[in-house]
Specification:
This protein is of the alpha/beta class. The chain has a single domain, classed as Spore Coat Polysaccharide Biosynthesis Protein SpsA, Chain A (Alpha-Beta Complex). Helix content is 36%, strand content 15%. The strands form 4 sheets. It has a 7-stranded mixed β-sheet, with helices on both faces. Strands 1-2 form a two-stranded antiparallel ribbon. The chain is globular and about 90 Å long. The chain starts with 5 loop residues before the first helix and ends in a 5-residue tail after the last helix. It is found in: Endoplasmic reticulum membrane. Belongs to the glycosyltransferase 2 family.
Length: 434
């Protein structure tokens, strides 16, 4: 009667010499051990975002008298979805959670992550409010009243109870399946209005005071002056902003750019939500290009993402002047993206531009499932959009180098590469899931 496992025991010669037939078994066990170690490391140390603290779910703003308000609760569509889900679960009802986001209250929300940005924030905000107020605010509403006196075959007009003329323009929208349809909101006027959510990411300088001072000098004067920014010059004629339009949310400790952006987007009230870097390096007047591009590719649910891109600037003076090391690391990262991200995300030429716009119906498919708080969060957003089948379009935008960057080229490049590997591994193995 044979001994169980005798064929394996026979591989060990009695004289104590090494048998080369053991190599396949050794390799198998080494590979198994490596997989187990990696799984343990990823499971134990993989980043998961922390829950917001009570003080981080409140905001302050500047009122019409120039005073800073007491902290007020932030509206949160994400919490509203959780409440609906809990109620449906208790009542044993089925609910398609991601389609239940509460309606928008205004047209545009700008989320600005800010960490020690007292020196650069003012210029960026100046250019932002000029665009937002002119395009989507009271200044735009005034221009609509004037335009209402003219005749136009593509415009539908209505007059409300107060006698104010409202104009809605039909938008040619290309659906995801390639079928074009004309959508007109003749039954209800289009949303107007805007807000800025500045998410102070645990700053140790006067970032919050800078934001409050900016609001004050654009609310109190009858004719505010226009301050200079990265793309514009100082002028005697600026815009007056509505009180409360710039809200400041303070995180108790630094979470990283991704964590700050995600936190702000959870509290956005806009039909469209855009995030932009506090340095103002991206030309903010290109926002309209993102809005139009997003509207053109939105699917039947109204979901769409427009990604600002600097890919057209490769080879330009702004990029060539960078150090050889920084350009080498940039190209290396793009190469990693092609091999480590899903096909649609891999086709995006510039995933890291800090200027991305999301339609409101797209938010529940992306924001609640975010895990990465660091620089690599942009890639996770695009991957989540791809997983959900949300159309994404890349739009060329203006960009220039602005001094004061907090990016450490070597450290952050290595961190982004590691983050990309963790991101792909976690989503690919099910450690992260929707």
């Amino acid at each position: 009667m044979g001994v169980m496992g005798r064929h394996f025991v026979d591989l060990y010669p009695q004289d104590g010499s090494f048998n080369w037939r053991l190599i396949p078994f050794i390799l198998i066990w080494v590979a198994f051990a490596i997989v187990v170690v990696i799984w343990l490391l990823v499971t134990l140390f993989v980043p998961f975002p922390r829950k917001p603290r009570p003080s981080e779910k409140k905001f302050t703003t500047v009122d019409k008298t120039g005073d800073v308000t007491e902290p007020e609760p932030l509206p949160c569509w994400y919490d509203d979805l959780l409440r609906r889900y809990g109620k449906a679960t208790r009542e044993e009802q089925e609910i398609e959670l991601e389609t239940e986001i509460e309606p928008a209250e205004l047209f545009m929300t700008l989320v600005v992550p800010a960490f020690n940005e007292e020196d650069r924030l003012t210029g960026m905000l100046e250019e932002a409010v000029n665009v937002l107020e002119t395009e989507y605010g009271s200044a735009a509403a005034a221009s609509l009243k004037t335009a209402a006196k003219d005749t136009s075959p593509s415009t539908t007009r209505a007059v409300d109870a107060d006698g104010d003329a409202k104009a809605t323009t039909a938008i040619r929208r290309r659906k995801a399946n390639g079928v074009k349809s004309s959508s007109s909101s003749s039954s209800s006027p289009p949303l107007r209005g805007w807000e800025i959510l500045i998410v102070d990411d645990g700053s140790t300088d006067h970032t919050v005071l800078t934001a409050q001072t900016f609001s004050r000098v654009h609310i109190l004067p009858k004719h505010p002056r226009r301050l200079s920014g990265p793309w514009t010059h100082r002028s005697e004629t600026g815009v007056k902003i509505p009180p409360g339009s710039v809200r400041v949310v303070s995180l108790e400790e630094n979470r990283g750019k991704g964590g700050a952006v995600t936190h702000g987007m959870r509290h956005a009230r806009g039909q469209y939500v855009v995030f932009a870097d506090a340095d103002g390096a991206t030309k903010f007047s290109d926002l309209d290009k993102l809005v139009r591009a997003c509207q053109e590719i939105e699917d039947e649910q109204g979901r769409g993402v427009a990604v600002g891109s600097r890919a057209h600037l490769v080879g330009s003076e702004a990029v060539v002047k960078r150090s050889k090391l920084r350009n080498f690391l940039m190209h290396s990262f793009h190469l990693l993206l092609k091999f480590m991200t899903p096909p649609q995300t891999a086709r995006i030429k510039d995933t890291q531009c800090g200027f991305k716009l999301f339609s409101r119906p797209a938010l529940p498919y992306i924001v609640p499932h975010m895990h990465m708080d660091g620089w690599i969060f942009d890639v996770e957003m695009l991957m989540l959009a791809e997983f959900a089948g949300i159309p994404v379009v890349e739009v060329a935008v203006g960009w220039k180098e602005v001094t004061g960057s907090k990016l450490n080229v070597i450290r952050d490049s290595v961190g982004m590469a590691v983050g990309l590997a963790i991101l792909r591994l976690c989503w690919g193995t099910g450690i992260y899931n929707r």
